[in-house]
């Protein structure tokens, strides 16, 4: 899929049959995709999954995976992932030149959002509410993360006595040894209930 704009739509996966674990909004994106003013809920894997393109060069070749390019999600809600498979996850999003702004992630236990693949990941002016064990995480040693001016508000399921209660982002290294990490600019983020992290996002937030 490429060169697509999806706007003003509502997606509710909702079904719970055991043979399916689908996203509410996903696909096999190549690039140039905009999601704008959508509401996405009740996914069985993630609510939203847009970060990589999978293909086979021919019938005998192995399945290859490449990052999607130019993915934008804005003014969109990702909420209430279903816990049918202990997998009430918000989103896996990313790729090369990806931007996510003015969105709401609410009432998902994890992946708020998960950073898929690698490349420049711009996450600005979003709201993340009521997570359980993960806010932003993922990427690898090739990632370049800009996490700027977002609002994090722990909710009823957030463990108030654990570090995840004030964590903004947890970068990952991928599958290499020794571990190496990409680069991250983390600034201007507000963590409700944690003035220390709000004042300095690197003081327990990243």
From TrEMBL:
Domain of life: Bacteria
Membrane spanning residue stretches: none
Keyword set, alphabetical order: Glycoprotein, Lyase, Metal-binding
InterPro entries for the chain: Pectin_lyas_fold, Pectin_lyase_fold/virulence, Polysaccharide_Lyase_1
The keyword Ribonucleoprotein appears for this protein: no
GO molecular function: lyase activity; metal ion binding
Xref: PANTHER family: PECTATE LYASE C-RELATED
The protein's name in its UniProt record: Polysaccharide lyase
């Amino acid at each position: 899929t490429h060169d697509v704009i999806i706007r003003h739509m509502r997606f509710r996966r909702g079904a719970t049959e055991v043979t399916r674990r689908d996203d509410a909004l996903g696909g096999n994106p190549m690039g140039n995709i905009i999601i704008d003013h959508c509401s996405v809920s009740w996914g069985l894997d993630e609510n939203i999954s847009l970060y990589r393109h999978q293909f086979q060069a021919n019938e005998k070749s192995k399945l290859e995976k490449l990052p999607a390019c130019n993915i934008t999600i804005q003014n969109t809600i990702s909420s209430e992932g279903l816990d049918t498979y202990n997998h009430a996850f918000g989103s896996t999003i990313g790729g090369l030149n990806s931007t996510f702004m003015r969105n709401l992630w609410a009432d998902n236990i994890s992946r708020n959002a998960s950073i898929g693949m690698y490349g420049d990941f711009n996450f600005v002016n979003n709201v993340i509410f009521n997570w359980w064990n993960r806010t932003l995480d993922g990427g690898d040693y090739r990632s370049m993360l800009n996490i700027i001016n977002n609002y994090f508000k722990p909710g009823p399921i957030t463990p108030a006595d654990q570090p995840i209660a004030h964590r903004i982002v947890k970068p990952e290294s991928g599958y290499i040894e020794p571990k190496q990490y990409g680069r991250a600019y983390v600034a201007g983020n507000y963590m409700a209930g944690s003035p220390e992290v709000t004042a300095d996002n690197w003081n327990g937030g990243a």
